[in-house]
């Protein structure tokens, strides 16, 4: 009886993870920075599955890893909540709405341009409000003194002025080293539960983490050797390598994908650009652009292979690194470094808030007015994000008329 009750309890947790991630996957417009803001609003502030510090630490880890940082953060939350299956369900819930939508675009709506739609511009303004609210809340808790506020501002300036896929990694490493020095005399409390086991917060053991890292490395080595044997293996290799080696978010993946799929003749240049335009119109991670490309090249089977291959490295890397990250972040010296790293993450978000979110959305006084109105509804009227999404889409449609 006890075993059945425990299984039912785990099943309830797994279903909740999938359901919450699915709702986020259906409503999270605005790109990776906006996704992190949606996660913060739902997972941290509303459901309290993790606190501000652990969320910021998880984001810092995902900035170090190649792949889609927002999807990896969602996977990490699923792992912490429900183990390996929880991470998989968090990934599936957040990804399937946009993946399916882009598959439909590939099969039925190829070539339709929705990039200039008024409602889409309204969703960009929603992203402005959501991200501003997240930065405001995180900044109050993670940059409480002038030292960490200065680190955040410096991180924002460097991220804006040094346009490189490696700038975020360098900023986080530099902030960590600076934190070791600035806060060397500060003693942090240690969380005993996380030091006792690698399975704290429902995540995986160190042995399983090592196995995930080994699988990641093995696929990275073996798939290029097997690609000549079958066209679908070649596709799996191209998308897996792309997902394994890209830093800097979804937009950075585009030139590599174009080189792989257009260069191989799987899709035309026109199909590639049409799919990219469609990817801007759907919620969820931009990496689901791979779903469009796979469907356009090889139909349903290509859809599943491309989607799985480009996201699998993200899952394996987070699952492999997270147990060690939990242990490391409770070492006192690591806590000193993370105090500064968390401030740097706020600065990186601030830079991303300005470019591309602000610069691509706010071009006129009306845009600013709508974004400010949405921010007030979110921050002071406490309306849920999905209502803000609907109001923003409607406002953008009306403004476009």
UniProtKB/TrEMBL annotation:
The lineage of its organism: Bacteria, Bacillati, Bacillota, Bacilli, Bacillales. GO terms for molecular function: chromate transmembrane transporter activity. InterPro entries: Chr_Tranpt_l_chain, Chromate_transpt. It is a multi-pass membrane protein. Belongs to the chromate ion transporter (CHR) (TC 2.A.51) family. Its main location: membrane. It comes from Paenibacillus nanensis. It comes from the Bacteria. PANTHER family: CHROMATE ION TRANSPORTER (EUROFUNG). One of its GO terms (cellular component) is plasma membrane. It is found in: Cell membrane. The chain crosses the membrane at residues 84-107, 119-139, 151-184, 204-226, 301-325, 337-354, 360-381. This is Chromate efflux transporter.
């Amino acid at each position: 009886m006890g075993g059945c009750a425990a299984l039912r309890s785990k099943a309830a947790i797994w279903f909740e993870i999938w359901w919450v991630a699915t709702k986020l996957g259906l409503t999270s417009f605005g790109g990776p920075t906006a996704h992190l803001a949606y996660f913060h609003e739902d997972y941290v502030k509303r459901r309290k599955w993790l606190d501000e510090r652990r969320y910021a630490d998880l984001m810092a880890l995902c900035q170090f890893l190649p792949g889609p940082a927002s999807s990896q953060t969602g996977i990490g939350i699923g792992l912490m909540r429900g183990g390996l299956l929880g991470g998989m369900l968090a990934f599936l819930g957040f990804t399937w709405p946009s993946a399916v939508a882009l598959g439909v675009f590939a099969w039925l709506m190829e070539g339709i341009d929705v990039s200039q739609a008024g409602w889409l511009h309204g969703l960009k303004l929603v992203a402005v409000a959501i991200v501003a609210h997240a930065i405001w809340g995180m900044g109050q808790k993670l940059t409480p003194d002038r030292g960490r506020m200065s680190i955040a501002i410096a991180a924002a300036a460097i991220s804006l002025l040094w346009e490189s896929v490696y700038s975020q990694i360098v900023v986080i490493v530099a902030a960590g080293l600076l934190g070791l020095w600035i806060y060397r005399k500060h003693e942090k409390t240690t969380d005993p539960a996380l030091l006792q086991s690698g399975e704290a917060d429902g995540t995986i053991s160190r042995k399983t983490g090592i196995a995930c890292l080994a699988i990641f490395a093995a696929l990275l080595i073996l798939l290029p050797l097997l690609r000549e044997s079958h066209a679908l293996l070649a596709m799996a290799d191209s998308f897996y390598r792309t997902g394994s080696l890209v830093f800097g978010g979804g937009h950075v993946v585009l030139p590599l994908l174009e080189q792989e799929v257009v260069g191989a003749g799987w899709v035309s240049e026109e199909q590639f650009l049409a799919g990219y335009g469609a990817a801007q119109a759907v919620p969820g991670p931009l990496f689901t652009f791979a779903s469009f490309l796979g469907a356009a090249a090889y139909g349903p089977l290509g859809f599943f292979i491309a989607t799985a291959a480009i996201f699998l490295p993200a899952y394996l890397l987070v699952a492999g690194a997270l147990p060690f990250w939990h242990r490391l972040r409770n070492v006192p010296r690591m806590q000193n470094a993370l105090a500064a790293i968390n401030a740097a993450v706020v600065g990186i978000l601030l830079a991303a808030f300005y470019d591309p979110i602000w610069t691509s959305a706010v071009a006129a006084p009306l845009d600013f007015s709508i974004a400010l109105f949405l921010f007030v509804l979110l921050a002071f009227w406490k309306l849920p994000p999905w209502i803000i999404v609907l109001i923003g889409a409607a406002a953008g449609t009306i403004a476009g008329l």
